Amino acid sequence: MNNKLRFLTAGESHGPALSIIVEGVPAGLNLLEENVNYHLARRQKGYGRGARMKIETDQIEFTAGVRHGQTLGSPISMQIKNKDYANWNTTMNPSPIDLNDEEIKKKLADKYISRVRPGHADFAGAIKYNQDDVRNILERSSARETTSRVAAGGIAHQFLKTLGIQIYSQVLQIGSVKMADEYAGNISEEEFSQIEASELRCKSPETANLMKEEIDKARKQGESLGGIIEIIVYGLPIGLGSHVHWDRRLDGIIAQYLMSVHTVKAIGFGLGFEAGCQVGSLVHDEIQRNTKKSLVSTYHHLTNRAGGIEGGMSNGEPIICRVALKPIPTLARTEENSLKSIDLKTKSNGVAFYERSDVCVVPAGGVVCEAMMALALADQILNKFGGDSMTELKTNYQNYLTYCLDR
């Protein structure tokens, strides 16, 4: 995949800081730290989060690529300091430590892990990278890394916003509690404000209350919960992606970005799995001349069962994508009823270890998936319209919109 917008993250969950580099943003984009911090704050909210969210107050600091509130066209560098590192500065210190010091040895022993958690990167990662201490795997594979993705996505959100493209998300289901179908498939600006005000990021207050009860029940049982979120993108032009090569199809590109998120196990566009259960006339979207004023096309689809993507290309309708997030693999259970697992040091059967964690991350997962969607679409916009400056890109973009409206 020929990425115009690239991002790289570094940092461990309890290390000194998270580092993020975003490359490919044109010069002249108005960008403030608060544009990114807004999304970081959204990620930390949500009913069912753990104690870590009370410790950290994630905020970025630009260290390169931005001057006086505008991007320079050079790589953008950001850093997020981990406040909790103060409690881990011996265990996670990058510098060599004195292993003859009894106090240091005790701190290391307290944090040493050889028992792995089913469903986590612990087992495969420890074997792949030949690590005895599983902490060397879990610190990087922790969902703390999604903080960096949301920071990078905050820049992509700001870029798309200048072109009139908005990305919203909402929680449709947590555990067995599902919001009524009538609430799905569309999100107005006013409704998004209501979603953001909800601890569950759920449009229905009644459903949100039931979701809270479900989370409370899981917490008492030492369980965790997954769910389903919906992402909707408005204002996207026709023709992002392509049908000519397998790796240029827009749905495939978006799927790669979203499936890379730690807890994501399945995605579907439009009808998703239901498209395999219906006859053709109930799956495909009929097209007519648009009788309403539109910014993207003189045509419109009477339905949007395809979720805004046909033949690997955006078709001018909102992109609608549903994402299934699994329950996190760290369960707050007693030794007696923890999940069966293996101790890689003793080679003996045992149970999974527990380290402070969330019960449900689904509301925050929506924010993370929004960020990945924004990064995928920003890259596709840059691929199609190019431009070293925002002025050049906007000119190219507007010319294309004019062309589409004349067809």
Give the topology.
Elements: E1 6-10, E2 17-23, H1 33-44, H2 52-55, E3 61-64, E4 66-67, E5 70-71, E6 76-81, H3 102-111, H4 122-128, H5 135-141, H6 146-161, E7 166-174, E8 177-178, H7 189-197, H8 205-220, E9 227-234, H9 250-259, E10 264-269, E11 287-289, E12 299-301, E13 309-310, E14 313-314, E15 319-325, E16 340-343, E17 348-351, H10 362-385, H11 390-406
Antiparallel strand pairs: 1-2, 2-6, 3-6, 4-5, 7-8, 7-9, 9-15, 10-15, 11-12, 13-14, 16-17
Helix pairs in contact: 1-6, 1-10, 6-10, 9-10
CATH class category? Alpha Beta
Give the low-pLDDT segments. none
Question: What about the largest sheet?
Answer: 5 strands, antiparallel
List the strand order in the largest sheet.
8-7-9-15-10
From the N-terminal CA to the C-terminal CA, the straight-line distance is 30 Å
- CATH architecture tag: 4-Layer Sandwich
Considering DSSP H and I runs of 4 or more, what fraction of the residues is helical?
A: 25-40%
What do you see in this structure?
By secondary structure, the chain is an alpha+beta fold. 32% of the residues lie in helices and 19% in strands. The chain has a single domain, classed as Chorismate synthase, AroC fold, CATH 3.60.150.10. It is globular. The mean pLDDT is 92.
